[in-house]
Design brief:
The chain is 35% helix and 23% strand. Helix 1 packs antiparallel against helix 3. It is α+β, with helices and mostly antiparallel strands and 310 residues long.
Length: 310
């Protein structure tokens, strides 16, 4: 009975590890969910492989354990790649950003979300699926008089950018034919330094090749941006996914050393980071924290502190 059970578990672990390893052969959209959860999958396989090895002490279970460890170690290496130095120039200026996918049908928590935004002290706020907050926009506008989105520059209310400083040259982009106006770009004058603010909501990666294609569209837009840049939003994918890694490398973007998990909210700190905040020097990302409460959303919000150089 033990031998039969061990064989079944070994077969299942081998199949999972095989699928997880396909990322090293081809970047295929059907593997998107697997690539984002590589570390989680590898850790589960390590535990199961240890159990099998304890029961059987055979070469197959040892091989599965080594295979699982290799996937886990490489996942950690990828998570640490593109990390910020968190070292700013002496004359850099402080800047704080809050980014949050509030969930379209979350209007019941609009006041609580508005309270959290106003308490944050953020200089700028990115909100996604912001239709839920239409009732509190007048209250938010008292602190953030400048806005892009929610019928300002767009016919609808989805992506919303709020700022304490004037948003200059604000523009929306449609990244694909699935959804419109899900990427916004604006500039602010930060005491003589022009800072570019970019916000994006990328399509889920298991909708054909849309995720990679939309990231390519964003890259084309960011290629024309010079000077300090802050990019944040709901990317619907972990930073270790192949297309996300290519995107970060192509745009010279930096992220926190350890990104807070933002989804699924039920998993808490054991979830994955699919909401991200990135920076391009001379904007230096110093610290990123997760909002303590999801406030009715299916994502946790993020807050980041920057030092903006000239």
């Amino acid at each position: 009975m033990t031998a039969k059970l061990s064989c079944m578990v070994s077969t299942a672990v081998a199949a999972v590890l095989f699928v997880a390893s396909l990322r090293y052969v081809a970047d295929f959209w059907l593997l998107a969910f697997v690539t984002s959860f590589q570390l989680h999958i590898a850790l589960v396989c390590i535990l199961l492989s240890c159990l099998i090895f304890w029961l059987t002490r055979d070469a197959v279970s040892a091989l599965l354990l080594v295979w699982s460890l290799a996937l886990a170690i490489h996942a950690v290496i990828m998570l640490l790649e593109f990390s910020t130095s968190a070292t700013a120039a002496p004359d850099a200026r402080a800047f704080r950003l809050l980014s949050f996918n509030v969930l379209t049908d979350n209007a019941a928590n609009a006041d609580a979300i508005a309270d959290k935004i106003l308490e944050s002290g953020a200089d700028a706020v990115y909100l996604f699926e912001a239709a839920a907050l239409q009732s509190v926009l007048p209250r938010l506008q008292e602190t953030y008089p400048y806005r892009l989105g929610c019928f300002t520059g767009t016919p609808g209310c989805d992506l919303l950018m709020l700022s304490k400083r004037p948003l200059l040259e604000g523009q929306f982009y449609s990244l694909s034919d699935l959804r419109r106006d899900r990427f916004a770009l604006a500039r602010i004058d930060l005491d003589g330094t022009t800072l570019t603010l970019a916000a994006g909501h990328i399509t889920k990666p298991y909708f054909d090749d849309y995720h990679r294609d939309e990231l390519d569209e964003v890259s084309e837009i960011l290629f024309r941006v010079t000077g300090p840049l802050i990019l944040a939003g709901d990317f619907n994918s972990a930073s270790i996914a192949p297309d996300m890694r290519a995107f970060l490398a192509a745009n010279d973007l930096k992220k926190p050393r350890w990104e807070p998990a933002t989804w699924p909210t039920e998993a808490g700190r054991f979830g994955i980071a699919i909401d991200h905040i990135f920076a391009r020097e001379p904007a230096t990302l110093m610290k990123t924290t997760r909002l303590p409460d999801s406030l009715g959303s299916n994502h946790y919000g993020l807050m980041a502190d920057f030092m903006i150089g000239k």
